[in-house]
Amino acid sequence: MKLIDQKTKKIMEECKERARDSGLKFDGESLEYIVTNKDLLELSSKNMIPTLYDYWLDDVKILRGEKIYEIFPDNPYETVINTMPAISFYNDNNPDWMNIMIFYHVLGHLDFFQNNFMFKHTRKDDFCGQALADKRLINKMKSEHGKWVDYAIESTLGIDNLVNYYNNLSKINLPEKIKSSEKIDYYFDIFLQDIIKVSHDKYLEEIERYNQINKKNCKEKESIFFSETTDKYPEFESIFKKHMERKKERPRDVIEFLMENSKFLNKDGNEWIKSVMQIIRNTSMYFQPQMRTKIFNEGWASYWHEKLFLKDERIKGHEVDFAKIHSKVTSLNRVGLNPYAIGMRIVQYLEDGAERGKFSREFEKIREIEKRKNCDKKTGLGREFIFNVRENFNDFTLINTFVDEEFVNAYNLFIVGKRLNPDKEVWEYYIKSKKSEDYKKMLLEKLYHPPFITIDESKTTEDTLYLKHYFEGKELIKDFIPNTMIGIGFLWDGKVKLDTTEVKHDNSKEKIKYQKVIYTLDNKKVSKEKFDLDYETYGEYIQDSLKKFFGNVP
Amino acid sequence: MALKSLDELLKKDKEREKDGFPKKIKIGKFVKPTKGGDKNKIIIIPTVVEEKFIHDDRARSKDFLDEEGRESSGSGEGNVGDVIYEKSIYEDDEGDENGVGSEEGGEHDIASDAYDLGKILTEKFELPNIKDKGKKKIFSRYVYDFTNMNRGSGQFLDKKATLKEIVKTNIGLENISSSNITPENLLFVPRDKVYKTLAKEKEYDSRALVFFMRDYSGSMMGGPASLIVSQHIMIYSWLIYQYKERVDLRFILHDMKAKEVPDFHTYYKTGSGGGTDIATGFKKINEIVRDERLSNDYNIYVFYGTDGEDGNKGGEETKKEIEQMFKYVNRIGVTIIAGKNSSSTMEEYIKTSDFLYKNQELIRFYKMEENSDEDEIIKCVKYLIS
Question: Domain B117-137+205-384 maps to which CATH number in 3.40.50.2300, 3.60.15.10, 3.40.50.410, 3.40.50.300?
Fold first, then answer.
C-alpha cells in the first residue's frame, strides 16, 4: 500500500476543482493509496478500514478470499471510506486514464458521505483514528484477558445489527424549533400542578409572568424566569434534576440494555467487556448509513463520473475505453439487479423530471396522459433538485417516493421470476410483472432491513432476559438463532428467551400459517416451544404486534 | 500481525468448544467447474458464517417453484409471461443476482458443506454383508499361487489330480472295474504324478456398486439438502479412499421423477423444486439393476437421503419397490431429515409395515435433525453401514 505519486495527485486535485465547479461539495483534504489485489483482500476483511481492531476470524476471511481469488481472479477498481480526511484505494492494475474516471466516481461518493443526512453522525470525528485507538485498547485487553476478548467480540457481533440506528438519527436531526424547553414544560405541567398544587389564580399569574419575559426575546429569558422561581421555590432545581435522571431515556437496543443491566458485565473485573461492546456498537453505527444508501450512493457516484469524465479534455483518445468500462458498470441487466445501474437511472430520471416540472403541485393536477407526457417547463431546476434529494433521501425513501410507472416504463423494467420447467430440465427466467407497484415492492424487499428486536422489560427478570421480535412477515434464519443466543447468554450470564414468529408447517397448500415460537437458552442449551396464534392473516398479526409496541396510532 | 495458517485457526476453533462456544469455521469445498466432465478443480475453503438474527427471505411462499424472495430485476423488451432466459438445473444454483448474463458468470459462492474428511477417513469402516459375486473385473494386480499343473516332477504333489490320472491309466489297462476297486492293486507309472508349481495369477475380486440417491424436491431446499449432501460427500470420500476402483458409483436424483446423473459434482450441485414421489427413486434403481443385470456381478448398496415428505402418502409403491430391492441388495441406508417431534410420511408408513423386522440386515433407517453437526453425521454413517 503506497500513496499515489505527485503526478497522479495533481490529476486528482484538478478533478476536485472540476467537480466543485459542477456543484459537488466535499472537504479539501483526501488521501489516495495505490493497492494490490492482495491488499484489497486483506482490507475487505476489515470493512476496508485499515485500522480496525484485530479479530481472529478475519484471518479466516482472508484465507478464504485468497483461495477464491485463486479460482476466480477479480480486479476491484476502487474503494473509498468515509473518514476525515477521506481515504480511497486504487487498484495498481488500473491504467491512468481509468483512474481519472475513478477519481470522479470517488468524489461523487465523498459528496454523498459528507452531505447526506444519514451520515451526519459520522462527520464528527476521524473514524480511522478512533478505530486505531480502539484497536490498541483491544490489544491491551487481549494481553490481559486472552481469548475471552474474542468471545466478547463475537458475542457482540452477533447482535450488532440491532443497534437502533434510527433512534440515534432522529435525535441528531430533531429540528431546533420544535425542541421546547424541558424545564419550562416540567415547571408548568407537573411542578406547579401536581407537586406544589398552586391555586388557579397563582398558576395564571405565573403564566403571565412567563409571557412577559418571553416577549423580550433574548437568549437568557429562561434563566431570568427561573431566577425568580428559585427564590419562591428553592426546592425546584433539585426536584427537576431528579426528574431528569429518572426520565433519562431507557436504552432500547439490546447491546445498550445488556451493558446497563447485565449483572455479569457490571461485576468487578468484567467492566472491560463493556468497552469491547461499545467499540463494536460504534463500529456498527458507523456502517449503518452505508448499508441503507447503497443504491443511491452508487447511483450518485456513477451519475457524476459519467457527467464529469466526458467533459474532461485530458482523457482524449480513451472515449471508447471509457464507454466499455462505464457500460459494464452501469448497464441494466437483462436478468439481475445492478444497484449502480438502477441508482444512476433514478438520479437521471429525477433531474430530467425536475427540469420538465414534474415534481410540482401543478403537474399533479394534470389528468390527461398526453399532457403529462408532453409537459416540459424547462424549469432549469433539475440540478438543484437532485442535490436536494441527495441531501435528504436514503434508499428506502428514494425508491418509495420516486419509483413510479413512468420510471419503470422509461427504462423497460420488469420483475423476473424463476420457475422450474421439469420437462426441459431448466430453470426458466420469465417476465413476471411489469407493474410499477410490483417493481417498487421488489426493490424495497432487496434493501437492508434488520429485524426489529427489543427487550421486553415486563417479562425480563433478574435472571431471565426476554427478547421480543416484532414480526414483519419474515421469520428469522433458524440456523443462526441458537448460536446467536449462546453469545447473548455469555453477556447476560443467565437464561435468555427469544419470542418470535415462524411459519407453521402443515399439509395445506394454500395459505401460509404462522405460529408464535419461544426459544429458550438455559445452561448453554437452546430449546424451542411453539404456540398457536389466533390471527387469520399475518397482516393482522403484524398490525397487532406493532400496536402493542407503539401504542394506538390512529 | 502475521496471518495465521488454517491449521492454527482450526485448532483455535476446536479449543473454543471447551469454553462453551460453538465452532465458527466451516470447511467448504469449492468446485471450479470445467467443461467436459470430471476434472473439476476442487479446493478446500474455510468459511465463516456471521450468525445473527436476520430475516429469512426464503420462507415467504408455499410454492417453492416461484418464491417471492427469488424475484429479481430485469430490463428490456418482452411481455409478461415471456421466458427470457433458461438455465440448466445442473448448473450451480447460486449467485443468480450477478451470475446470469454478466461477465463474471460462474462466480459462485459455495454451499458450505460442513464435513471433516480427516475424521471420517481415519475411521476404518467396512461395507457390510459383502459376498463373493461375479468376480468379473480384471485388475492389474497379481498374486502367486500353485496353479500350474506339471506332470512327472515339480514342487507340490496334487494328490487328487494324481489319483485321477492313476485311475485313468488303470481303466486303460482294464485293471479296474466298477464293482471291485482295491487301491492296493492299482498300477501306476511315474508320469501319473501331478505336481503343482507356483505361477503368477491375476486376482479377481468382489465388486461393489453403490447407488447414491437423494430427494431434491422443493421441501429439501437449504438445510436438509446440504445435510444429506454433506453425508454423501463423507460416504463418497470414504469409499473412494478405502475401496478405490473396486467400487462403482451411480448417482440418482428424484423429485416427482427420478433420473440418473453422470457424476458426483452434478449430483451434489443440482437443485430442483418439484414435489416428491419417493417410489420413483427406488423404482429407477430397480430398473437399472434389472436392465443391466447388475445383481449377478455386484454387491449392491443404496444410500438414500430425504426429508420423508412423500407425496405418495400410503407409500404402497415405495414399499413394493423396496421389497423388490431386497432380492439383490446388500444394504439400504436411509437417512431422514426431520424435526425432533414431527413424524414424516415415509417414517409413518415404514413404521407401520413389518419389513424392517423381516430384513433387519438389509435396511437401516436413521433420523437426523435438521441442525445436526458433523459428529451426528458420522454417527449416522456408522449406523447405516454397521
Answer: 3.40.50.410
